[in-house]
């Protein structure tokens, strides 16, 4: 799978696409999974509930947001890959999701186990898409989007949040 062309996604997602390194998609996806796990495993316990300012997500909440977004994007990828251009895929309220989950009682290892499970399912989905399936366009309401674009966005989204964590949290 090659990087998507600009007509395969809303320009809003360009930042995420730009954060995906060049290379073989399967390798890049697998490396992203490994690097994400390694990154969060190496954050000290003292930083797990840290917020760089009031009202911002904690490190664990950022990981939960990554998990939630992966679930949403994986579903969208499935819709696109199955050629369903009728089902509308509206945006989701990331703050609403974050406000309705409590990770304060969960350990980083528990959250990482959940990430691994979700990412493993996503990996099985995207690595087995055919050349035709990655180009099918889903109805993302404001702009059609392909399974290819969604697969790249998932990688870039994680890279974006890891960059923010490095800059503002650690």
Automatic annotation (TrEMBL):
Domain named DinB-like: residues: 36-163
Domain of life: Bacteria
A matching Pfam family: DinB_2
Residues of the signal peptide: none
Protein name listed in UniProt: DinB-like domain-containing protein
Source species: Solitalea canadensis (strain ATCC 29591 / DSM 3403 / JCM 21819 / LMG 8368 / NBRC 15130 / NCIMB 12057 / USAM 9D) (Flexibacter canadensis)
């Amino acid at each position: 799978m090659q990087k998507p062309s600009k007509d395969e996604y809303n320009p809003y997602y360009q930042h995420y696409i730009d954060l995906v390194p060049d290379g073989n998609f399967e390798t890049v996806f697998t490396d992203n999974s490994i690097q994400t796990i390694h990154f969060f495993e190496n954050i000290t316990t003292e930083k797990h509930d840290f917020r760089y300012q009031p009202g911002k997500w904690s490190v664990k909440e950022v990981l939960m947001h990554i998990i939630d977004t992966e679930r949403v994007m994986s579903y969208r990828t499935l819709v696109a890959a199955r050629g369903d251009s009728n089902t509308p895929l509206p945006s989701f309220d990331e703050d609403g999701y974050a406000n309705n989950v409590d990770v304060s009682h969960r350990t980083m290892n528990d959250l990482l186990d959940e990430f691994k499970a979700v990412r493993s399912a996503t990996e099985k989905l995207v690595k087995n898409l055919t050349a035709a399936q990655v180009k099918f366009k889903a109805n993302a309401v404001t702009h059609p989007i392909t399974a290819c674009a969604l697969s790249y966005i998932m990688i870039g989204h994680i890279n974006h949040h890891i960059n923010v964590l490095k800059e503002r949290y650690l």
